[in-house]
Amino acid sequence: MRFPLCRISRSDLLTVLVSVLALLGLSAVRFDFAADPEPGTKERAVVLTVDNRDLTPFGTLTTGSQMLTVRLLSGSRKGMEFRAVNQLRADRELDKLFEPGDEVLVAVLHQADPATTVLNAQDYYRLHYTWMLFALFGLLLVIFGGMTGFKALLSFGFCCMVIWKLVVPLCLKGGDPVWISVAAVCLLTAVVVFLAAGFNRKGVTAFAGAMLGVLCSAWMADGFAALFRINGGCMPYAQALLFSGYGTLELPRLFVGGVILAASGAVMDLGMDVAAGMQEVVQHNPGVSRQELTRSGLRIGRSVVGTMSTTLLLAYTGGYLTLMMAFMAQGVPLTDFINNHYVASETVKTIIGSFGLVLVAPFTALAGGFLLLPGRKE
User: In whole angstroms, what is the distance from residue 83 CA to residue 48 CA?
Assistant: First the structure.
């Protein structure tokens, strides 16, 4: 039995090579940001001993300093033992309580002396687990999908690189987050769709339907964010970003850009589902008319939209489960709950994403009625 990855067509090879070159090009992109010179390095270390005598219980939380003895596992001082401190602030979002055997990330000064220097233990060391999780995900994709899974893995990496190398730096440089997000989604949709479907009529149909849905979502997100008076301060670390020298950033525009990015994945997924279903109809019934093919696409879209919109609702609200629990525990009335800034922002995000899903199905069906039946005279 041959491994499915071994069957590589010329078109697959071409798309893979283009994607790899694009990834290499993105990895070389650099943006200069003013930053204070680092007085040291961040290294991996293992906790040998802990001293909790300076910790004070504060209700269900803890405050004080946890003293550690750590051994460095990386860097020029690998193998050396240092004292380290872990400061707890009675903040469960930021605090962590280390135990012997934990691997941690510590800040090591360039001139650190094990006899006198106390390191700062910043967090658990998770890099190796992150790479392991990504490797397992990639292996499962390739085993299950063969070349299609491998291309999906490339598109996943490309999405990460576009967001980190282009979207985030360009927004920090003062670009309009809405237009940056729209351009990024256009690029990502093209790469993801054409990697999955190939550069053919099915791929063009899915791309056209998805982009029309994304553009409508962007227009509605911009309008309803202003109507709901969403100022963007509900986003994580928004205040910290403003106080870090980026006070000119427009948080409401950043919020709209985030809505566009968040909804784009489901939109391109639905566009591909409808386009693939319509192509199957054409292959099994080459004599189908444009009207019948369009109606078939609409029926396919109807059967998928219901579950996809529910998927968006569960994905968004799952991240704010504790917020809903806090409101219910305090007996907050429904009117206050709906008018809360955080709830309003999630409402806009969820409903706008669902609007994009509802619209992409007819857009894709109309595009497929023309693109999948070339030269047909009705």
Answer: 10
Angle between helices 177-197 and 201-227 in degrees, nearest 10: 160
Please check whether residues 116 and 250 belong to one and the same domain. Answer: no
User: Is the residue at 63 inside a domain?
Assistant: yes
Domain co-membership, 96 together with 238: no
Place of tokens 């499962």: 140
Q: What's this model's pTM, rounded to 2 decimal places?
A: 0.81
Domain harbouring 90, CATH code: 2.40.50.140
User: How many whole angstroms separate alpha carbon 319 and alpha carbon 314?
Assistant: 9
What does the pLDDT look like over 63-80, one tens digit per residue?
999 999 999 999 888 999
The closest of 61, 53, 57, 60 to 85, measured between CA atoms, is 53
Structural tokens at position 4: 């499915």
Give me the number of domains the chain comprises.
2
| CA 13 – CA 29 distance, rounded (Å) | 25
Burial class for 229, CB neighbours closer than 10 Å (0-12, 13-18, 19+) = exposed
Q: What's 4's DSSP letter?
A: G
In the chain, the percentage of residues whose pLDDT exceeds 90 is: 28
DSSP string covering 45-85: EEEEEEE-TTEEEETTEEEEEEEEEEEE-SSTTTT-EEEEE
Tokens of 267: 């939109």
pLDDT value at 377 more than 60: no
Bridge partners (DSSP) of residue 57 are 62
Which tokens is 280 given?
A: 């199957």
Helix axes 201-227, 341-371, angle to 10 degrees: 150
Element (H, E) at 40: strand 40-51
Q: Which pLDDT tens digit goes with each residue over 151-172?
A: 888 888 888 899 999 999 999 9
